[in-house]
Each structure stands twice: as structure tokens, then as C-alpha cells.
TrEMBL record, chain A:
Pfam families: FAD_binding_6, Fer2, NAD_binding_1. It comes from Cribrihabitans marinus. Residues 268-357 form the 2Fe-2S ferredoxin-type domain. This is Ring-1,2-phenylacetyl-CoA epoxidase subunit PaaE. GO terms for molecular function: 2 iron, 2 sulfur cluster binding; flavin adenine dinucleotide binding; metal ion binding; oxidoreductase activity. InterPro entries: 2Fe-2S_ferredoxin-like_sf (IPR036010), 2Fe-2S_ferredoxin-type (IPR001041), 2Fe2S_fd_BS (IPR006058), Beta-grasp_dom_sf (IPR012675), Cbr1-like_FAD-bd_dom (IPR008333), FAD-bd_FR_type (IPR017927), FNR_nucleotide-bd (IPR039261), MRET (IPR050415). Gene3D superfamilies: 3.10.20.30, Nucleotide-binding domain of ferredoxin-NADP reductase (FNR) module, Translation factors. It comes from the Bacteria.
Automatic annotation (TrEMBL), chain B:
It comes from Cribrihabitans marinus. It comes from the Bacteria. GO terms for biological process: phenylacetate catabolic process. GO terms for cellular component: cytosol. It holds the Pfam family PaaA_PaaC. This is 1,2-phenylacetyl-CoA epoxidase, catalytic subunit.
Length: 357, 252
């Protein structure tokens, strides 16, 4: 399992009003662990009000920039991103797991390819890493970026992209599509939808010439672009997706506290929710929650039954259980009330668990 | 870029998820089950096949069997690595279960799984000698081809990519099975092959899983399945029957 390492913050720079670029330096000889692949992300952890939050942010640096940088855009109500945008400063220490993610393709210095990137808002961060690395390491390849934003003021890395266009003259093409700000060409105003893509493919982008497409943005945008690419003959293996942070839940909820103390009776009334249906059953305290659910014809998920794989994870909302073994859940998950149901035996007379959370 | 969309409707419309951070709980459970089923079947299949390496009648056959054992183990590793990103203890996982364990040849367990692992039921039956191993590998290999064609489109992109890398390797295993069976048929072992085909056919057919429409629908909505299991099984039956016919064998 991946472990967290300390990273020193060496620079925090505002790119636009509500986004920062954070430069990091691995501490304690962990530099080797952070040798990333373009397009990967880092998962950070930090405690807020005594509760651990984990958030993933994409690396925006290219392989040849010689630094580790992530972009963090402030999300409304997001504890981590707000903190990073207001309080984080050089000299601070952050904790992150080594880079993860498969949003990349193998590079070949002899290749002569045409890549097409789509980025929505802060979805630019991994795409920027990919385009910088690709243009540097595949000197004969080209990159076209379609970059969607609300308006001119919300374009992250706008100047950096201009510089890159000059550096890689003729090999980098950037099309800005702005939702609200009018542009000279009407096509470049509005949202990037399937229809908009189809229009772009008519005169602006030679889609038949594209080898690989990268898409990172909010869900509806990814769907629209993917369907347009497929309609124009691209296959699933040519389309790479990265769903960005919007799907991460906001603030974690508190762990449920035991509603009643343990008693001597060896029966428990268990209320189990699975697939939106709730069943209440009586079970002995020497039976696992998973087995009790299965015996009552509930199709509870499991695989190894040895506390190793985490397939049977559920959340305790009321009451307490004891886990006989846990090789899969981490402390922060346990703190939130998650348990491995194959290893969980009731301690209280009443137990409420939910597989849907 | 302020449009809101739930993960559920995103998935229902064919959206892809890309990391453990954005999978909802029920999706996580089904996805881990799917991955565990694949890993356990590959580990159990490789473990069972390891014993048949020495039963190979010649050097070529032994190399083919050893290659299959090696590559199935490697394919298990590719998917287990993804399970690790969800928290599974991958080192312990490989050793938590005796993958060589088998039931009796005539045990009748239908499509049910054993108590302690998620291998497909077919991998609970023991192989009996070289010809039997070749036929099992051929019929199951053809079934795996159908399943992987389907699974290459799953909505969890890292897994779809793993399956795209795995599919041609598994297809080659089925091809090795076909070559091995053709050789045995040439050597006059058709009766043995037919006996094994009769034995494995219904067991492989069951590996396609149940046809509960509610479950099918739920998996389809999550993008973890496209075609109903019955359709996949029928496709396999047609294809496998053709392969058997080419070998001079009858469809069981």
C-alpha cells in the first residue's frame, strides 16, 4: 500500500483569482518516490477540525521542468482547496502519497503524432503536464488544445500557454472556448458540447489525423466530447479520460457515536441497508455482519472473506463492531466508521450499517 | 463550466471513472467484485495448470503450458495492482488462499462460488491429464475472449485499459489450446478430447453467470456490463461449436 511522505512547500503562486500553483520538494530522501509520469496526480492529506481529509490534485509540471508542481483551484465550500488558496505558504510541509494515475500514453522520440487535448477549467493541470512533456520529448509531434473556461479572467496558465506556443512554433495550437465572454469567432463562445466539437472538427481540427485524445473536465463536458470523438471514428483505446475533482465529496461527516453501551445479551438487532433497501434482522454477536446479511438473502458484496481485499466495506452508522482483522482499511477510513463487514462482529445490542455510503 | 451532474447519470450515459477517489460506494463494491473474480480465476487457473506442465507430451507442449501459467499469473497481477489502489493488501492477497485447491471431479456446484474466494465455479474442478487440460483451456479460453471483449469497455478506465492489454494474451492462450487439440486429434486422441469436451462444456457455460435481469440492469447502469450474460453465452456456444467441429468433434 502507498504511504504518505512529507513535502516542503517552496513556492505558492496565484495564477488566477481563485487558483494557486504550489511548488513542492520531497523531504527525507523521498525524491525518487515522486518521479512522476506526465498527467499523474498527488493525493494529499490534512486534518481539519480533528478530521482527516484527502484530496487529489493533478501535477501541472512537465517531466523536464525539473520541479514538482500541482495546481489547486478553490472549490466552493471545499475545506482543502480554500485552505490552500488562503493560508498555504512557502516553508509549510504537506503530506502526499507518491504520484498515481494512468492519464498518459507512452512517448517515443521518433514518433510523429497529433495529440488532441480538451481541458475544462482547472482540468488544464494534467493536460498541461502532458502537452509540455510531449512537445519536449517527441520533437516531431503536434498538440492541439481545446481549453474551455467561463471567461478570460478564469483561464489558468494563460500566459504560460502563450509562451509555449512561441517556444514550439507551429507545433502547439490552442483554441480557447469561453462560456460567457464573446470572441471574434462565434464558434469559440459557449460550452464545449458534442455539437461544438463536431463544428470544430469541420474546419479547425483535422480529426482523422489525431492519434490520441486527452479529456479532463467536468462530467457533462467529458460525455459530450467523447461522443463526438467516437462519432468521428476514434476508438475507446485512443481516448484518455481524467475525471477531475468535482466528484470528490466536500466535507467528511462525523463518525456515528455508539447509541447504547454493550450489554450481556448475545443477540444484536442489525439494520442493514444495501442497494437502497433496508432490512432489520436479529443476529448472534459471534456472526460477522457480512454472513448475517448473506444469510438473509441480501446480495452483500465480498470477495476474499479474509479482511484483505476491502470489497465488503460498509459504514457503521449506529452501534459498534469489532474487526477481527483489517489489512485493507486505513485509519482515516476506520475513523469515519468504515468497517470490513466480513471481519466485523457486533459489540452493541443495536447496530445500523450501510453498504451504500 | 458550472453544470452539475450526478455520478450516477454520468455513468448511465457512458461516462468513465478514472480513480478510486471518484467511485461511489455501490460501484466500488461491484467493481472490486469484478476485479476479484478475474484475479481469483486467473490465480486458480494458473495454479491448476502448473501441475499439467509436466504432463505435456513434448518440449513444445510444456513450454506452451508454462507460458500460460506465467502469463495468467502476470495478468492477475495487472488487475490486483488496481485492487491495491482501492486499499487491498496485494502481497497478502496472493497468499490468503490455496489456489491449487480443487473439489472432486463429479462435485456438482452449479454456478456457486466457494466460501473463501471469488474464482468462477469452473475453476473448482480438477484437470485430469494433458488432453483434459488442453480441452478445458480451449473452451474456457474461448469464453474468456467473449468476456474480455465486453470488459474492455467497462466504465472504470484503468480496468478497461488493463483488460485491453490482457485480451490479446488470453486470446493467444485459447489459440494454443486449439493447436494442442488439433495435434491430439491428429494423434488419434479424438475420443479423449470428446469426453473432456462433454465434461467441460456445461461447466464453462455456467461461468457466464446468472441472468437475473435486475442485476443486469444495475450493472448496465453503472457501465460495468453491456450485453446480457445470456447473449454472451450464446455467442460463445456458436463459436465454440464451430471450433469443435473443425477438430472433428461434436458439440456436447
Amino acid at each position: 500500500m502507498a504511504r504518505f511522505h512529507d513535502l516542503h512547500v517552496t513556492d505558492v503562486k496565484k495564477t488566477i483569482r481563485d487558483a494557486v500553483v504550489v511548488t513542492l520538494k520531497p523531504a527525507n530522501g523521498a525524491a525518487g518516490e515522486f518521479d512522476f509520469i506526465q498527467g499523474q496526480y498527488l493525493t494529499f492529506r490534512r486534518e481539519f477540525d480533528g478530521e482527516e481529509l484527502r484530496r487529489s490534485y493533478s501535477i501541472c509540471a512537465g517531466k523536464d521542468d525539473g520541479i514538482l508542481q500541482v495546481g489547486i483551484k478553490r472549490v466552493e465550500g471545499g475545506a482543502f482547496s480554500t485552505w490552500a488558496n488562503t493560508d498555504l505558504k512557502p516553508g509549510d510541509t504537506l503530506q502526499a502519497m507518491p504520484p498515481m494515475g494512468g492519464f498518459h500514453t507512452a512517448l517515443d522520440p521518433r514518433a510523429e503524432r497529433h495529440y488532441l487535448g480538451f481541458a475544462g477549467g482547472s482540468g488544464i493541470t494534467p493536460v498541461l503536464s502532458i502537452l509540455k512533456t510531449t512537445l519536449a520529448r517527441e520533437p516531431r509531434s503536434r498538440f492541439t488544445l481545446v481549453y474551455a473556461n467561463t471567461g478570460v479572467n478564469s483561464i489558468m496558465f494563460r500566459e504560460e500557454l502563450e509562451d509555449l506556443k512561441n517556444l514550439y512554433m507551429g507545433r502547439l495550437n490552442v483554441i480557447h472556448v469561453l462560456e460567457t465572454d464573446a470572441q471574434e469567432i462565434e464558434l469559440f463562445t459557449g460550452l464545449v458540447t458534442a455539437e461544438k466539437c463536431a463544428q470544430l472538427f469541420q474546419h479547425w481540427i483535422d480529426i482523422e489525423d489525431v492519434d490520441t485524445a486527452f479529456i479532463c473536465g467536468p462530467e457533462p463536458m467529458m460525455l459530450g466530447i467523447a461522443s463526438a470523438l467516437r462519432a468521428h471514428g476514434m476508438t475507446d483505446s485512443q481516448i484518455k479520460f481524467e475525471l477531475f475533482a468535482s466528484a470528490q465529496p466536500g466535507r467528511a461527516r462525523r463518525k456515528a457515536v455508539a447509541a447504547d453501551a454493550a450489554s450481556s445479551a448475545n443477540q444484536t438487532t442489525a439494520t442493514i441497508t444495501l442497494d437502497g433497501a433496508t432490512q432489520t434482522l436479529t443476529m448472534p454477536k459471534d456472526r460477522s455482519v457480512l454472513d448475517a446479511a448473506l444469510e438473509n438473502a441480501m446480495d452483500a458484496p465480498f470477495a476474499c472473506k479474509a479482511g484483505v481485499c476491502s470489497t465488503c466495506r460498509c459504514r457503521v452508522l449506529e452501534g459498534e463492531v469489532e474487526m477481527a482483522a483489517n489489512h485493507a482499511l486505513e485509519d482515516y477510513e476506520v475513523a469515519k466508521g468504515y468497517v470490513l463487514s466480513c471481519q466485523s462482529y457486533p459489540l452493541t445490542d443495536k447496530l445500523v450499517v450501510d453498504y451504500d455510503q | 463550466m458550472s453544470e452539475e451532474m450526478t455520478i450516477e447519470s454520468y455513468l448511465a450515459e457512458g461516462g468513465k471513472l478514472t480513480s478510486p477517489a471518484n467511485v461511489p460506494p455501490r460501484y466500488r463494491a461491484e467493481l472490486l467484485k469484478l476485479m476479484a473474480t478475474f484475479v481469483d480465476s486467473e490465480l486458480a487457473g494458473a495454479a491448476g495448470f502448473a501441475d499439467t506442465i509436466n504432463a505435456g507430451p513434448g518440449i513444445k507442449e510444456r513450454i506452451a503450458a508454462a507460458k500460460i501459467v506465467l502469463e495468467k499469473t502476470d495478468n492477475a497481477g495487472k488487475v490486483l495492482k488496481l485492487m491495491g489502489e482501492f486499499g487491498a493488501d496485494t502481497d497478502r492477497y496472493v497468499n490468503h488462499h490455496p489456489w491449487t485447491a480443487r473439489l472432486d471431479r463429479d462435485a456438482d456446484i452449479g454456478a456457486s462460488r466457494s466460501e473463501h474466494d471469488m474464482r468462477l465455479a469452473v475453476f473448482n474442478y480438477p484437470l485430469q491429464g494433458w488432453a483434459d487440460a488442453v480441452m478445458m483451456n480451449l473452451l474456457m479460453g474461448l469464453a474468456v475472449n467473449e468476456q474480455l471483449a465486453e470488459f474492455q469497455t467497462v466504465s472504470y478506465q484503468p480496468l478497461a485499459e488493463a483488460f485491453r492489454a490482457i485480451a490479446p494474451i488470453e486470446a493467444r492462450h485459447a489459440e494454443l489450446g486449439r493447436e494442442g487439440a488439433a495435434k491430439l486429434a491428429d494423434q488419434g486422441r479424438s475420443d479423449d478430447l470428446q469426453t473432456s469436451a462433454d465434461y467441460w462444456w456445461p461447466r464453462v457455460a455456467q461461468s457466464f453467470g446468472g441472468t437475473d435481469p435486475r442485476r443486469s440492469e444495475a450493472l448496465q447502469a453503472m457501465g460495468l456490463r453491456k450485453m446480457p450474460t445470456g447473449d454472451l453465452r450464446e455467442r460463445w456456444e456458436r463459436n465454440a461449436a464451430k471450433v469443435l467441429e473443425e477438430l472433428g468433434l461434436a458439440r456436447p
